[in-house]
Amino acid sequence: MNLMIGKISHSQPMVLPPEVTNKTVKPDTPNIAQVELSSELKSLQSAKESMDKTSDVDMNKVAEMKAMLTAGKVSINLDDLAGSMLDFYQDNK
């Protein structure tokens, strides 16, 4: 005799009562509110997406300045540059 207590044997068919098998189950999901964005907000979203795709640095101008520095067409006072950088970063704290 094969007695299994607390276990389900694969050979035993599972029989459910008719009230369970004929019941249609509806998921308990709350109603979802729909929100419509204003045209101003849509415009701001579009502008933000455009800004996210652009670079903060104009690499063409960087390359142009680099070429001018290499060619000696521009001279830089490093003391003035360092002072300007310190002023900028100290003012933006």
Characterize this entry briefly.
This is Negative regulator of flagellin synthesis. The chain is mostly helical.
Task: Provide tags for this entry.
mainly alpha; 4 helices; 0% strand; flagellum; cell projection; transcription regulation
Give the proportion of residues in helices. 40-55%
Approximate shape: elongated
The overall pLDDT average reads 78
Low-confidence stretches: none
Label the structural class: mainly alpha
Radius of gyration computed on alpha carbons? 36 Å
DSSP helical segment count: 4
Report how far the terminal alpha carbons are from each other.
Answer: 83 Å
Number of strands: 0
Could you give the order of the helices and strands?
HHHH
How much beta, percentage-wise? Answer: under 5%
Oligomer: single chain
How would you characterize the overall build of this protein?
There is one protein chain. The protein is mainly α. The protein has a domain at 58-92. It is 49% helix and 0% strand. It contains four helices and no strands. The chain has helices at 18-21, 39-53, 59-71, 78-91. The longest helix is centred in the middle third of the chain and has 15 residues, at 39-53. It is elongated, with a radius of gyration of 36 Å. Keywords: Bacterial flagellum biogenesis, Cell projection, Cilium, Flagellum, Repressor, Transcription, Transcription regulation. One of its GO terms (biological process) is negative regulation of DNA-templated transcription. It comes from Photobacterium lipolyticum. Residues 34-87 form the Anti-sigma-28 factor FlgM C-terminal domain.
